[in-house]
Design a protein that fits this description.
- The relative contact order is 0.14.
- Helix content is 71%, strand content 0%.
- The termini are far apart.
- It contains 11 helices and no strands.
- With 265 residues, the protein is mainly α.
Length: 265
């Protein structure tokens, strides 16, 4: 699809386009043309939308593997590996660093440990736990796995936006600092929420899923996203770029696990 030229787009719409393209570059490893103009200042507002994009691509890949008669467990492993590859391990790395920091009893040293590039035992165990939880949950989901991938990725990143907006940032600099400075409340929170609720409406209209099930799963995704961010804030007194990634990973994993129990409703 040909991208419209800058001259064909009004200035206001152009800024949205620059920001969305920057969000794709920041949150994924998807290649974009090098000559595109990017504006990274407010990319966090697009995080839930990027989550839906990631989940959609993973869902397409999963459907393709299904057509090749790949067994469900192998498909689930390949999807989770692709999930990590699409994001460049950005959020998983944050979850690992956060785990290493929280393992330190001295609260004053936690941030220092989290900035250490070396992965500790707790970080490694966290990565293993997250990968296993996602793989097992996907293997147990019987239908509409593409929708589960989209909603999990979307709610995980919406939880990140809420954490950015609602809790103090604990470092004067860092990858997450400019997110905190540029976030708008409540506009940026509502933007992602509207996209996710729209996806829920799609589940009812196109997939003929139970309205009660869709409402319960949406409420569960919202609750997990909110509680995960609140838990890390309680442990550290705020958030960093690493904990933003941890919110994404744990929300995705826990939400998928919860869906396995709700699919029989």
């Amino acid at each position: 699809m040909k991208r419209p030229s800058d001259q064909e787009i009004p200035l206001g719409e152009r800024q949205y386009w620059y920001s969305l393209a920057a969000a794709v570059t920041f949150y994924t490893c998807l290649p974009l043309p090098s000559h595109w103009t990017l504006d990274f200042q407010r990319v966090a507002r697009w995080a839930p939308v990027i989550g839906l994009l990631i989940g959609g691509l993973l869902g397409l890949g999963d459907l393709g593997l299904q057509q090749l008669n790949i067994p469900v467990l192998t498909r689930s492993v390949l999807v989770v590996v692709a999930w990590i590859a699409l994001t460049g391990g950005l959020h998983l790395d944050g979850a690992m660093d956060t785990a290493d920091g929280l393992a330190v009893q001295d609260q004053h040293r936690r941030l220092q440990v989290m900035t250490d590039s070396a992965t500790g035992a707790f970080g490694a165990m966290t990565a293993i736990a997250l990968v296993l939880l996602k793989t097992a949950a996907l293997s147990d989901l019987e239908g509409h796995r593409w929708m589960a991938l989209m909603t999990a990725s979307g709610w995980g990143r919406w939880g990140q936006v809420v954490a950015i907006a609602c809790y103090p940032y604990l470092k004067p600099t860092g990858k997450g600092a400019f997110h905190k400075q540029a976030i708008r409340i409540p506009q940026d929170i509502l933007l992602g929420l509207l996209f996710l609720l729209g996806l829920s409406g799609l589940q009812v209209c196109l997939l003929a899923q139970s309205l009660l099930l869709v409402i319960l799963s949406s409420a569960a995704g919202c609750a997990i996203a909110l509680l995960t961010g609140a838990w890390f804030h309680r442990q550290l007194g705020g958030h960093t770029g690493d904990t933003y990634g941890a919110v994404v990973e744990w929300t995705e994993a826990l939400f998928l696990c919860l869906l396995t129990g709700m699919q029989k409703l």
